[in-house]
User: What shape does this take?
Amino acid sequence: PAPPHVLEEMQMHEASWDSKYVTYACRVDQRQDDRSVEIALFSMARPHMRAFHYAWLSFFFAFLAWFAITPLLAEVQSSLGLTKEQIWTSSICSVAGAVVTRCMSGLFCDIYGARWMSAVVLFICGVPTVLTGAVNTSAGLSVLRLVTGIGGSAFVTCQYWTTTMFTKEVAGTANALAAGWGNLGGGVSQIFVGSMLFPLFKWIFTVSGADGDPADLSWRVCCVIPGLACTVFTFFVIRSSDDSPKGNYNKRKQLGLMQKPSAGKHITAALRDHNTWLLLIQYGCCFGVELATTNAAALYFQGEFELGTEAAAAL
Assistant: This one.
């Protein structure tokens, strides 16, 4: 017979009777619905680590698309002949889209699972981002940014997903890693779109002798790539990941292995918890500063120091 410590190790990889899996690559705690007790960063094994990496990548791509236009706002303003107020109105619409859908996405994750919600957020954010170049009016810009603002709710789906996959002893670490890496998308978009794609396409349009202003043509094309990244990754999220360690919510409900959550009960419980309101104020302050800075930084550096789009985005 195998030594006791080997048997114990083997048992920690075994799945509960109601799981779609027989064993897991990660060690799990069956008392916590087969959540993983470890974070194997260099693994992509389903369901735990696949969900972890897909969670932060979904967050990253959604923020990359959401903020793709921000380093280009000065070019958009000049090209469309917009006022500073109209540009800021579009930024307000962008934040509004995120605020509303963030309030709803947690509830939808409870009902449909984080996998489907992440995919929906990516798709709804990605497709309009691809179509950014079709904008020609202030109203069109505001509507576009309102819809792409839905990408901001990827933070909620990311945190929900990782919390579902890891035990309470390591969930904080998993959430912090996934949130930190995912949130990089907002900063990377400044450099990737403003300092890399924009000058690249501007050079291409210049040397090719394309009709029209190269800068105008460039900002209209730049956002296609972040938008496509979102849209394509949607397919991988749906096809090759799981809502929970034991499988997908829809299938488990069909088999009677999972109760359908009560939306009203969940909302009431959240609103009655004083921690909800404390965290709302705290997060509103810190994330509010981040949103204001991300939306205004490139515009500020261009207006205050007369920098070009490429240099302002890099800063």
In short: The mean pLDDT is 93. The CA atoms of residues 50 and 111 lie 21 Å apart. The chain has 14 helices and two strands.
